[in-house]
Write a structure and sequence with these properties.
Layout lengths: L6 H19 L16 H10 L2 E4 L9 H8 L7 E5 L3 H5 L4 E3 L4 H13 L2 H17 L2 H12 L7 H17 L5
Parallel strand pairs: 1-2, 2-3
Helix pairs in contact: 2-3
InterPro entries: Glyco_trans_20
Protein name: Trehalose 6-phosphate synthase
Family: Belongs to the glycosyltransferase 20 family.
Length: 180
């Protein structure tokens, strides 16, 4: 029994599936999937976000991912794309204006993707407005404050060290509040 997943096999399968999908339903001037297997510059990534009609964010493991927020921030508010999030991402709870989907349910995925691709402009604009309000409210300062408050609550033998560190960070933050 293999305990690890061979990334080369996964990459080959993804490339094969993307090629088959693009070959089956793509057009000469349009491909449903843009598969890029290389690092992109910030400018290239922002351009792809802006050009995308839909962003589908379905991580297998959810860490601190900014993909959903970056997609929303890059959109043109006059003609925004649609954000689709896995119900299992941390962002799904924080971003209720996104379309939520169970990525393990193929029928649900198909329905939500169709809904995203055919969503009327007015609804896209309203969802984008709500998502922008959310990402403006829950910014890096909010995350830092929440993390520091959580640090101040532990009941462990490390509590004196943590409180000392916390007070240093808070003092630094008060003197340097213009920067993060």
């Amino acid at each position: 029994m293999q305990d690890h997943i061979d990334c080369t096999d996964i990459q080959s399968e993804i490339e094969s599936l993307c090629g088959a999908l693009n070959g089956d339903i793509g057009e000469l001037n349009w491909a449903p999937v843009r598969y890029i297997h290389r690092t992109l510059s910030r400018e290239e990534l922002a351009g792809l976000y802006q050009a995308a009609q839909v962003a589908l964010v379905t991580p297998l493991r959810d860490g601190v991912s900014l993909v959903a927020k970056e997609f929303v921030a890059a959109q043109n508010p006059d003609a925004p794309g649609v954000l689709v999030l896995s119900k299992f991402t941390g962002d799904a709870e924080q971003m209720p204006a996104a379309l939520a989907v169970n990525p393990y349910d193929k029928e649900s995925m198909a329905y939500v993707m169709h809904r995203a691709l055919t969503m009327p402009l007015a609804e896209r604009q309203e969802r984008h407005r709500a998502l922008m309000e959310t990402i403006s409210r829950y910014d890096a300062h909010w995350l830092c404050d929440r993390f520091l408050r959580a640090l101040s609550r532990p009941d462990t033998a490390q509590q004196p060290k943590i409180k000392n560190l916390l007070s240093k960070v808070l003092r630094h933050r008060e003197t340097d509040s213009g920067r993060f």
